[in-house]
Amino acid sequence: MTILYTLVARGSVVLAEYSGTQTNASTIARQILEKTPGNNDMNVSYSQDRYIFHVKRTDGLTVLCMADDVAGRRIPFAFLEDIHQRFVRTYGRAVLTAQAYGMNDEFSRVLSQQMEYYSNDPNADRINRLKSEMGQVRTVMIENIDKVLDRGDRLEVLVDKTATMQTNTLRFRKQTRRFRSTVWWRNVKLTIALILLILVIAYVVLAFVCHGLTLPTCI
């Protein structure tokens, strides 16, 4: 099984979780939640031995999973996105005030089903490969979790770098669009100028030809 554990939390308050095997993933996951305070959106991964903890936080809601390192990042983050959408669609604004494990009885079954799907169904990878080709997979940073959990300041730096990467990506996209727009207008202006030049040349040639044809009559 590729994805072994997952949880949904608001801040450090766990609202639902499910583990497909016996593991201490729950303990490590809570340490990650405690060391990633705030509500800034982020996608980040932390490695631990041959497992990787993938974290997605959107609008204050954190979805986390532990997966085998061979799973890569495309499938785990597609799984996290799917869980986030299902959770918000199911509970709406109740997420903002829910108590710890308030949705666990019902939603842990959803976590189990989707973990099974994304871990074993080949269709999951085909769908997510298509999404990746469409540019919907975000860049994710991976860091050894031992460095993260041993030093709180190290984790804050990683979060800051992630935010900076996202900001730089947005700035680059804006600059690229602006550059394309500038090049397009420049090409339009050059095309118009070329057309005008051709029209002027054609007018001069026609005037010269007409003058040459009418010259004998004038004599």
UniProtKB/TrEMBL annotation:
Matches recorded under InterPro entries: Longin-like_dom_sf, Longin_dom, Synaptobrevin-like, Synaptobrevin-like_transport, V_SNARE_CC
Residue ranges constituting the Longin domain according to the UniProt record: 7-111
Quote the Pfam families the UniProt record gives. Longin (PF13774), Synaptobrevin (PF00957)
**Annotated coiled-coil segments of the chain:** none
Choose any GO biological process term that the UniProt entry carries and state it: vesicle-mediated transport
Give the protein's function: Involved in the targeting and/or fusion of transport vesicles to their target membrane.
Q: Tell me the protein's name.
A: Vesicle-associated membrane protein 711
